[in-house]
Design brief:
CATH architecture of the largest domain: Up-down Bundle
Shape: elongated
Strand order of the largest sheet: 4-6-7
Oligomer: single chain
Strand content: 5-15%
Helix content: 55-70%
Number of strands: 9
Length: about 500
């Protein structure tokens, strides 16, 4: 695995996945530590001159008017971490923790925090040694991820808990076994460790990376259903779409046609019907809107992943420390909500396409896709599973950015729930992949029964991969295990995903 070099400005989703999920090593570019040293000199100067500065020489939140005694500044940093480690619930998975720590490393590396350089070096060393702070899953309201990232800060000072080598240990022991030494915090360091929105950014990067893959899967599964249904592709014609160029629809249509290339359905005259149900006919419009929502989320996330979310910020060139609102993430939270709604639309039409395949009056195929006819259940009971998945996805799509909430009285009177928005997307994407697996299992049977003389290249990839792990339906059998197998071994397969990306790459 190639290492990732962090400069604070160019971290990509692929980089986050490489570090979070595949253990890639992290290094800092040459200009990062000198930049931090210049900024730290500004912090030291402000402390020496006792300039009133939020969170440095004054308290935090409602105590921002309280001037801290010089002798208390280092201890105040430690108290800041201890007093904010208030998250609860199950521990976040190690990949999410790694993504959050990497996002904080990158945010600090880009400048503006004023943290001591050795703090950043320790965070990098923790990633590379696979020391994973235990961060409970609930605690951020999106006004910085304070109460969760403070659990990272605890481990940095040798407290709290961390996973290392498959064991959950106290922070000091985990660091010692990894050959690392806890940091001694100076003024402002504790606040920096808790600041910004690295959990929303890190988990958001993982979610958006997966969302892009799942939308490609949705396109490919739809193409597989087209083959079994013998769908009419005239709604995908660029001339038709050009008459009302709604965002994203031309991309989605072009990808569907690319996936179907090599089969017969590129010629609408091969279709069974003049006009298909909306769930097939308007797939490009629905998936196109999801692509548009993903683009919006991309635009909102990049500044969080590659920007400074600290408050206050340190400007080394002018020697100033200025109050900042860069920790506030309303655009990101709104974008996560929008993507959640778009994924719900994608889920809804997947379940409906699956139901249409089971209806002989619409599909022209045997009832419930059973080769024995109505005396067998076939895939009919699987519609309940599909609807249960849609219900859960719809519930999770409830907007979180509009929820009223507040922090410190009269000071922190708005927040965004961005971290919750990202965490919710992770669950939604798992459920959507399972739902697409339901449709794919059914569509593969439909293709077997329809027996088209040639399949498009995308449907052929899926059909072959599914039939390697799931046999055709003969007599009634449990389908849940088949769906789980397809979700895990086909739709989550890097090989399958790479093959499908290669097919749609030129079209989009």
């Amino acid at each position: 695995m190639t290492g990732i070099t962090v400069d604070g400005k160019t971290l990509s989703y692929d980089d986050v996945v490489a570090v979070a999920c595949h253990g890639a090593q992290v290094a800092l570019t040459g200009e990062v530590l000198p930049r931090l040293e210049r900024e730290r000199a500004v912090v030291d100067d402000v402390v020496d001159r006792q300039v009133p500065t939020y969170g440095l020489t004054t308290g935090l939140g409602t105590r921002s008017s309280y001037a801290l005694p010089r002798a208390e500044l280092e201890l105040f940093s430690v108290r800041t971490v201890r007093g904010r480690a208030n998250a609860v619930g199950d521990p976040l998975p190690a990949p999410v923790v790694r993504a959050a720590v990497l996002a904080r490393v990158n945010g600090i590396a880009g400048g503006g925090s004023g943290v001591r350089p050795e703090i950043l070096r320790l965070l990098v060393d923790m990633l590379n040694a696979r020391v994973h702070p235990v961060i409970p899953e609930v605690g951020s309201i999106g006004a910085s991820d304070l109460c969760q990232m403070a659990h990272v800060g605890l481990v940095v000072i040798g407290e709290g808990s961390a996973e290392f080598g498959g064991e959950v240990l106290d922070g000091a022991t985990a660091l010692r076994r990894a050959g690392l030494t806890p940091a001694v915090l100076g003024p402002k360091d504790g606040h920096v460790l808790c600041s910004a929105s690295p959990l929303a950014a890190g988990q958001g990067a993982l979610a958006l990376h997966e969302a892009a893959a799942v939308l490609t899967l949705a396109q490919a599964v739809t193409a597989l259903t087209y083959e079994g249904f013998r769908a009419n592709t005239s709604p995908l014609d660029a001339r038709v779409l050009g008459l009302r160029p709604a965002p994203g629809q031309s991309r989605a249509a072009a990808e569907l046609l690319a996936l179907l290339d090599g089969g017969e359905l590129g010629d609408p005259r091969r279709a069974r019907r003049v006009q298909d149900p909306v769930s097939l006919r308007c797939a490009a419009q629905v998936h196109g809107s999801a692509y548009t929502a993903l683009d919006l989320a991309d635009a909102a996330l990049d500044p969080e992943l590659n920007g400074c979310g600290d408050n206050p910020v340190v400007l080394a060139d002018s020697g100033e420390i200025l109050s900042s609102g860069n920790f506030h993430t309303p655009a990101l939270a709104l974008a996560f909500d929008t993507l959640a709604l778009a994924l719900t639309q994608t889920a809804s039409i997947s379940a409906e396409r699956m139901r249409r395949l089971l209806d002989p009056a619409v599909s022209g195929l045997p009832a419930n896709l059973s080769p024995y006819g109505p005396e067998r259940s076939g895939f009919a009971p699987l519609t309940k599973t599909a609807q249960a998945l849609v219900a859960e996805i719809r519930m999770l799509s409830t907007p979180v950015s509009t929820d009223p909430r507040h922090g410190a009285d009269a000071v922190e009177d708005d927040s965004t729930n961005a971290a919750l928005g990202a965490r919710r997307l992770t669950t939604m994407l798992t459920r959507l992949r399972q739902l697409l697996a339901v449709e794919a299992v059914v569509a593969t049977q439909a293709v077997d029964l329809a027996a088209p003389p040639a399949l498009g290249r995308g449907p052929a990839v899926l059909h072959s991969a599914i039939r390697k792990v799931v046999p055709p339906l003969d007599d009634d059998r449990p389908h849940g295990v088949d769906v789980e197998t397809v979700s895990r071994d086909v739709l989550a397969s890097d090989d399958v995903r790479s093959a499908l990306r290669a097919l749609v790459g030129g079209a989009s």
